[in-house]
Amino acid sequence: MLVESGTYGIKGLPRPADAVTRTHSPKNSIPYVEKLPVRYEISVLASSTDPVLRRQWTLFVLALEKFKLKPVTEKLSYFQVAGIHGYPENTWDGAPEPRADPENPKPGDQPFGGYCNHNGLNFPTWHRPYMALFEQCVWDNMNDIIEHWEKKHHLKDPELGLWKSAKDTWRMPYWDWARQQSYNEDFAYPQILIQGPWSLATGTSRYGIFVNKNAKRFMGLEGVNNAWVANNHLANMTWYPINKNQEAREHDDDDEEQDDVPKEPYFKWNPGTLADSVNRMFCLHYNDTWGKFASTKWTKESHENSNTGFLSLEYIHNNFHNIVGGSDYKTGIGHMSDVPVAAFDPIFWLHHTQIDRLLAIWQSLYPSLWWDKCEAGEGNVRDDQPDDPLYPFHDKDNGNPKKDFWTANKCRDWTVFNYQYDDLQTLSEKALDSNGALDECKFQNLLQAYIQKTYPTTQHLLCDIKKAPIIKIPDGLRPKPGSNSWYDYIINIKYDRYALKGTAYTIKFYLGGPKGENFTHYEPQNYVGSVYTFGGGSRETDSCSNCKKQADESILSCAQVPLTIQLLHHTIDGLTDHPLETFDQVERYLELHLRWKVYGFGGIEVAKKDYEQLSKTEITVLRGIGQPQHVAAPVKKDAIEGLALSSFSLMATDEPMPESNIKNPVAVPPTYDNDSYKPLASITHGKAFGLQKDGGYRPKRE
């Protein structure tokens, strides 16, 4: 337990005595430690009937509550640990003082105070020891609870031993928001997070804070969660499958008969933008440097000739903070969408453990990509380096408070914190050589196949359309007759995260309108994606004494909105606002009906007079080519079968691979040829911030 006067070493939970490293080459390799405790997906942990996992879930809930009740003056209180991320901007564990809120932030400054790293190359690695710290704090409280049971309630063996054993193998759960939840077969909150009474009042808000116009203040600050509203926003990140009811509406005008038609989907897959984005992020060469994968930060050296590399882990992370927290006063806002207070919502830790898992998956696929190419900062701005101290996280107990910090290089191997992820551990165990060591090539093939089965893409949707009895793949989708490739459409966005003085804003994209008219209906059914800058709400500031020194004023960010899945749905959903029949019409369709709006924090549309503040925004639509990929089948029949079901993982596919197919090539994430993408200026010409036919961009409203 902590000595308040000394540094607190973040070392991970105790490693079991029989946990042994089985990696051929420790340097720049894929870590594998047999019998290492795993981090489970939260729905698995919460709903399991396994006695050990039931005890772990009970301990987790009790320990989290005990953690939250600790006095705020304690270094390891929930208040102080959550406060590391932003407010109240206090020094923690003797580290150098955190940044203060800058009064007039330059574009290169972090827009808010605190230790957290955003829009920088250490974004994912800074959060790794942070999650380990939280994991240790919860575990320490588990120890206290069991000790209380033993001393005050005389809990004895064998029951005492069972609880201690469960505690020793517990690890922090994650929430995989990019795969469908098994309880409703949709993208949704884990069932445990939407059940009352906990989901309605947790001390923090999700879509629970509103403006009280009469009192000129906010309502709901006491911690009200509108779980049903939040869940609906998450479900809207996907697309509903075409079903027989929709087919009936196309072929029958009798409403009564339509109601009797069973609503069975034609499509097994329901690809959402989250799942598609995650899959793309892992595709070979989609992000060919650490910087492109890790951060939203745009640099001329890395991005000027890159078309696919605008989709980063941090961009997906930012949007999800907005989905969970809410940033519109009409539907309610919450802590998660506001950087300085996001960590005070317990869901923050589930979300960022998932971010760490995605980081571990990417590292497993591309272990050599690590500050591997020049990741120079713009102008005078020094970029993050892998040996920079990750303040305020110390790696030694009672060490030097000004030194002994974790760095990205020190925590590159996540198993140094003595955890692994459930699916990665299971896949590793299926890819061992005859000596029990990890066969990295086999493991990577299995991992790629698992990603493709778990996170559906355009390729899945095309397969299901091909099997549908009525619907067909639209003409013009294939670059060549008879090929399996497809035209892929994306929107690349370059933006200034600090344009509105660091206050968060959202660029929302809409596609749809009356046939043949140059018009867009800004309606929910036409929403196709967004970019959330993840700053925070408006607030008064009082100091800039410790602002980060970044003199260059051209620090920009980048993001990407894939469009192909949405376009496919527009060709087959039959909605009046989606008059697209073939892909031969796509470019004209986008010219007429693709538009965007910018909303400030609170959901208020940015006024025309303020567009000059957004003058560095650049929006480009590109068309490239996606190509399905396969790898040789694993030797063992059971290597792929049930992958998504093993190790208590959530169901990501409804059937195992048939035995007859085991020897056939296995699908892995597609490839997207960076050089095949060409900008389509006619689509964005004349639109605010869009690429013009003369090659420039202009911040002008239509």
From TrEMBL:
Q: Which domain of life is it from?
A: Eukaryota
**Reaction catalyzed:** 2 L-dopa + O2 = 2 L-dopaquinone + 2 H2O; L-tyrosine + O2 = L-dopaquinone + H2O
Give the E.C. number(s).
Answer: 1.14.18.1
Oxidoreductase found in the keyword field: yes
Region annotated Disordered, chain positions:
90-112
Q: What's a Pfam family in this record?
A: Tyrosinase_C
Give the keywords, sorted.
Copper, Melanin biosynthesis, Metal-binding, Monooxygenase, Oxidoreductase
Q: Where is the Tyrosinase copper-binding domain?
A: 118-135, 345-356
Which cofactors must be present for this protein to function? Cu(2+)
| Amino acid composition bias (Basic and acidic residues), ranges on this chain | 96-106
| GO molecular function terms listed in the Swiss-Prot or TrEMBL record | metal ion binding; tyrosinase activity
Q: Name one GO biological process term.
A: melanin biosynthetic process
- Family to which the UniProt record says this protein belongs: Belongs to the tyrosinase family.
Protein name listed in UniProt: tyrosinase
Native species of this protein?
Fusarium tricinctum
